[in-house]
Specification:
9 helices, about 400 residues, 5-stranded mixed beta sheet, alpha+beta, 4-stranded antiparallel beta sheet
């Protein structure tokens, strides 16, 4: 039964009618056509939850359905997929091919709306909120019996649905284009770094002359490390205060981590300034963190270096270089939680060019980083723009 609803804040001027409320089961239906890899000989691309990125609608990879054992759900081209397991991860897709997916993903087809419009409806804050009223705690799943009865507002005019979906699709296309440019630039940097650290690519001085040969050293030749401090829970504060220090833990490395702590009166040896270099020594071993202020946990090393021997940006890029990361992981051991000690860190070898060539390398890599960061800003701005559109074009 339809109910009238307020007009959205942002609307194309040629449309005047109000949005109308319908239960979700009236707006869309679930596809339930099954695929059994033990009986069906047809090999189709299979989408698992790990195939989808979070909150982007991007497909990372697919699997061959004939290599799988459990039953799957079939989908057709231009249908909407939504990950019902851990719905807060916001995994969704508008399909561009025929295939199958895990039963932890719902297949939706629009009834009162087009599939492209439905694809953007499931990205709204309202749908996300209702999808997360789920069953189960350890492995939460969206409850269809609950969600199917929730009312959502849609435009009655199919042309308005089409225009909204088309407009938002253009924004997605822009985000995808920017993301691809950023990915290509990151791949280019990785390739250049490999040539630089393998000394296949060398720089020259301002007069066009060759720099001296690189000299192999160990970290203990020009660095010194300090290990952080384990602060008891009772001495951590959840709110910032005057004279307090941000406490840098492994949680800091997790995006949008809710756990932020502050402490007071630390030893000066465990204070990190913005120009310092931190490196994780346990767990996610080798992760390099710079440009952060606070007191660091004992899961970190602070790396001090002789600045007449080494350029900071050069050193940071060397530590982030994949072969260096592999060396660090081997030194940290193969236990459940890898742990890098002081002596193992000091054993890491590095080929150092003269400081002037290091500076040229650092400037070159920093220029690439600036371009990557500029693209990151454009991507985040476009995502914020899209989020604002979803809030204002739906009611």
């Amino acid at each position: 039964m339809m109910e009238k609803q307020l007009i959205p804040k942002l609307r194309f001027p040629e449309f005047k009618s109000e949005f109308v409320k319908f239960e979700f089961s009236e707006i869309a239906k679930r596809g339930k056509k099954s695929y059994n890899p033990n009986k069906d000989s047809e090999n189709l691309p299979c989408i698992e939850l790990e195939s989808l990125t979070q909150e982007t609608g991007q497909l990372i990879k697919t699997f061959d359905s004939i290599n799988l054992k459990s039953n799957k759900t079939r989908f057709s081209k231009n249908e909407v997929l939504f990950g019902k397991l851990r719905p807060y991860l916001k995994k969704y897709l508008l399909t561009t091919f025929e295939g199958v997916c895990t039963s932890e993903i719902w297949v939706f087809q629009g009834k009162l709306v087009s599939n492209p419009f439905l694809y953007y409806l499931i990205q709204t804050d309202k749908f996300n909120f209702e999808a997360n009223v789920s069953s189960g705690s350890k492995m939460p799943r969206t409850d269809w019996d609950y969600l199917s009865g929730i009312k959502f507002s849609i435009p009655n005019n199919s042309k308005e649905q089409q225009k909204i979906a088309s407009f938002l699709s253009d924004v997605d296309a822009k985000i995808t284009k920017l993301t691809k440019k950023k990915d290509l630039l990151e791949k280019y940097k990785k390739g250049v770094m490999q040539k630089i650290f393998n000394q296949e690519l060398r720089f020259k001085d301002d007069n066009g002359n060759e720099f001296p040969a690189w000299v192999e050293k160990k970290m203990n030749d020009f660095t010194k490390i300090n290990q952080g401090l384990q602060i008891p829970i009772s001495e951590r504060y959840t709110e910032e205060f005057d004279g307090g220090y941000f406490y840098i833990t492994n949680e800091f490395l997790k995006e949008n981590s809710p756990n932020k702590y502050y402490i007071k009166n630390p030893s000066t040896s465990v204070i990190c300034k913005r120009e310092d270099i931190l490196m994780t020594r346990t767990g996610n071993t080798g992760m390099v963190v710079t440009d952060v202020e606070g007191v660091f946990h004992n899961n970190f090393f602070k790396i001090d270096y002789h600045n007449k021997s080494c350029n900071k940006v050069f050193l940071v890029n060397f530590l982030r270089y994949k072969p260096t990361q592999n060396v660090i992981m081997r030194l940290a051991g193969t236990s459940t939680i890898p742990d890098l000690n002081h002596s193992d860190f000091y054993r890491i070898k590095i080929a150092l060019p003269c400081l002037e060539e290091q500076t040229k390398i650092a400037d070159f890599l920093s220029d690439i980083d600036l371009k990557i960061e500029a693209l990151n800003i454009k991507i985040e701005n476009s995502k914020s723009f899209k989020k604002g559109l979803l809030q204002q074009m739906f009611v």
